[in-house]
Every structure is written in structure tokens, then in C-alpha cells.
Amino acid sequence: MIRTSEPKALNSLPVFPGGEGPAATALSAADYASLREAVAKLEHTSFATRLSQALGQQVARVGKLVPADVGDAVQKGAETAIKAALFAALRTLAPQGGARILLHKTLATFSGALGGAFGLASLPVELPFSTVVMLRAIAAIAQAEGEELDDPETAFACLQVFALGAARQDQPLALESGYFAVRSILARSVTEATRFVVGRGLADEGAPALLRLISQIATRFGVVVSQKMAVQAVPLVGAAGGGAINYAFIDHFQTIARGHFTVRRLERVYGAKIVKTEYDKLRREAATH
Asked: What does the DSSP assignment read for 192-248?
């Protein structure tokens, strides 16, 4: 169900000594620790690293060598998958229990095993299924961080995770463009898509506002999918390796989701400006170590 009411109000702000508001004071110790963990998840997590941990450095390097024909097929598959995930998010997201995250990871791992057995030919079926399953796991994380799943803006925030999990194709794959940079790139498209859905629902699934956002997210999502498919094409990987790859795949995006929705929770409490300021400080600090 799509909720079309006014955007939700900010959570109640904490009371600080001397009557100071959150914009004039630092985060609490617990929230600062949470933000530090979010920075680590969002700025220092790559799918290539997870492939190395799952299957070894040699296989991870193979994932960076994607033939042009495979790349074209992956881009089309990524767009189909993101479109399926978008409409699943807007139509069927509902409150979930924590145990659902493990179930979603198990389902995605199983679909990856099938994808590993059939290779690129399975992409049109396996990728949309895996992506929708991952979306539901992402939504469970969002709910745990205080998001309202019947709010269209939350649905689009869930979808953004697929873009946050990879850099653009002309950049290194270690999120060099930065978390807030990616959010800024997507901001206008997200706003327009949210306004369209709130005003008109899903009457026109081919609306430019929706297709523009789908294309932007799919371009980034396709980078990670290309790595995944290239590794699955290695003869020695096969079905068992496909399951391991998909486990790493969904774990990667769940990690990104935890960081993303932690930041959003803190923004609702302290305001976006102070959270970004502290985030940037922590990011610079991490870069010097």
C-alpha cells in the first residue's frame, strides 16, 4: 500500500543541557559510535573484497574483467531487476520481523546456486528474483532503524542501496565517489519520483520520473552484477560457488543498508547538516589511518 499523506515529522529531538538544540552540539557517545560504524560500512566496503574473502583473490580479480557482450546483457538485466524491485517496494513492502533477514539471505543464496549452474542464460530470471529478495532484507533493516515502510520515500531510500553499493563504471570499485556524493547525484531523481508516486500512484509505470531513477540506479548496480556474473562464468565456480557468490552479494548490500539507514536515523534526530559534518570528519580521520 502507498501512503500519500504529508511527509512524516522528525523524531522528537533530545534535550541538551542549557537548552541547546542538536545543531549546536555533538552527537551522543552512542550515536557517534554508530556513525563511525556507518562510515566504515559505507566508505570501506566493496563487493570485490567480499569475493576475495569467499573465493580467493584470484577469482576476485576475474570479476573485474567483463567482456562487452556480458556487460550489455548485465546492464539490461540490472535495469529489469531494479524496475522489479521498485514496484515490489511500492506495492508490497510491509513490516517484517528480524528473522526475515536471514530467510531472505538464504533465498538469495539458493537462487545464486541456480544461477551459477546455468550461467549468463539464467540472468533474466535469477537477477530480478535475487534483487527483490534483497530488497525485502533491506526493508527489514530500514524498519529496524525506524523507517515507515508504507512511506514511498522509504521505498526509494531502500532502492538507493543498490546504487550506494558500487561506484560508477569510470571510477574504482571501492566507493571512491563517497556516500553523500551518490546521494546527492540521486537526490533530484528521488524527489521527482517520490512526488510522482505520491500524486499519481503507479498509474503510469513508464513515467519519465520513474524510468530516470531506475536507469541511474541500474547503471551503478550493474557494476557489481558484472563482477558477480563474470566470476560465476568461471568453470570451476559452478553452482556451489554461485551460492557463495550470492551470499557475498546480498551480505554486501545488507551491510550498505545498515550504514545507510543508520545515517538516516541520525539525520532524523540531529538534522542532516550536523550528521554530514560529523560523517565527513570521521571519513577524513579514517583516510589518514
From this structure: HHHHHHHHHTTS-TT-HHHHHHHHHHHHHHHHHHHHHHHHHTSTTTHHHHHHHHHHH
Which phi and psi (to 5°) does residue 62 adopt? -60, -35
- 43 and 179 Cβ atoms separated by less than 8 Å: yes
Separation of alpha carbons 19 and 107, rounded Å: 50
> How is residue 232 written as a grid cell?
560465476
- The cell numbers describing 282, all together, are 570521521
For the chain, which residues make up each domain, given as ranges?
29-287
Average pLDDT score over residue span 124-145: 86
224 vs 8, 46, 61, 110, 124, CA distance in Å?
Answer: 33, 9, 13, 19, 16
Rounded Cα gap, residues 254 and 277, in angstroms: 25
The single-letter code of the amino acid at 23 is A
C-alpha distances (whole Å) from 78 to each of 73, 162, 182 are: 9, 10, 18
List, for residues 136-180, the tens digit of each pLDDT value.
Answer: 889 999 999 999 988 989 999 999 999 998 754 444 444 346 899
User: Residue 101 and residue 144: Cα distance in Å, rounded?
Assistant: 11
**Cα–Cα distance measured from residue 215 to residue 151, given in angstroms and rounded to the nearest whole number:** 22
Q: Do 139 and 149 touch, CB atoms closer than 8 A? A: yes
